[in-house]
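pinned: reference chain
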Amino acid sequence: MNAKLVRELAQRYFPDVVEYRRFLHQYPELSFQEEKTAQYIATLLQQWGVPHYKGIAGTGIVALIQGRNPSKRAIALRADMDALPIQEANTVSYRSQHEGVMHACGHDVHTAALLGAVRILQTLRRQFSGTVKCLFQPGEEKLPGGASLMIQAGALENPRPAAIFGQHVYPALPAGFVGFRVGDYMASADEVYVTVKGRGGHAAMPHECIDPVVIAAQIVLALQQITSRYADPAVPTVLTFGKIYSDGGATNVIPNAVHLEGTFRTMNEKWREEAHRRMKKMAEAIAKSMGGACEFTIIKGYPVLHNHVQLTRRARAWAAELLGSDRVVDLPIRMTAEDFAYYSQVLPACFYRLGTGNPHRGICAPVHTNRFDIDEAALEPGMALLAWLALRELGYQESP
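pinned: its structure tokens
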């Protein structure tokens, strides 16, 4: 067995994997509602004779590809299954059949590629030692994140993987390419909710009111000092308020309250906790000093995603073995977030990017947009690399 064999198997299964992806794309389901998606996956696993467990964290599935001496060592591969509440604008034959729901973040690709990797590994199960644990995970797009619930449900136990790999579509990179980042890769992400309370009244008589709009404006501006004057410049930090609204009101009415909703992201868990305290203290003090009050709530989201240094370096080298060194690139950090980060907090983890773009065919729309699509040629290296990384990490040595 060598990389050539894995590539040949990926080529053999490619037409089927395209069909898996298209079916999943046509019938997307929202976070923690992936009932039919899970049923579809389980039916395929059963047809292939792959042992699996259903109902993990609701709709999650854990499949086991057992090689020789299954208890020797275990490696995990992960794919997420959920879609987004977006109305698809593409006119392709496999367009979403569910109004207002779309696989706009490529989770159909992740799931189909993992299904292809399952077939490759199941075909080769007599040629490797150990177990590959495949996690089909619900709810990546919605807090608290399906990854955290899968971990709580014991998906990483019996057997406990020595490492875990995950991949994510990347339309900025052409199909056939993959990208890696060693160390901290993606940011933590927290939701910030602020209610500024004042005393409403007629806009022509502000002296008789406590204006929460003015207080909220001061808070929005002042909180930017958290990123510009309190954060270490070497630690990427973002605070953005994307929504501001009042309780009713009109052009000539000062409202009783104003609401702010935003996101806070950083690449350092210690600073994350300190920033939470500073933001709350600053906002409450400003509101009080101006005669109002402030309710400041932070809902903690996904943690920093850390790619294990040695594991990721190995994975990058193995990707070059499989695809060619010219098809493997280094990636910058991202301030977006991923619940795969929870796995990276408890296991050596490697989360990398699968190129899916093709600008010559106009396939370049970003994820989370209604025009997102992929060059389906990406599915072949996608399934092959997942299988190859598992085989290599299990201790298989490339033939000379």
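why pinned: The two ends are 11 Å apart (CA to CA). The chain has a mean pLDDT of 96.
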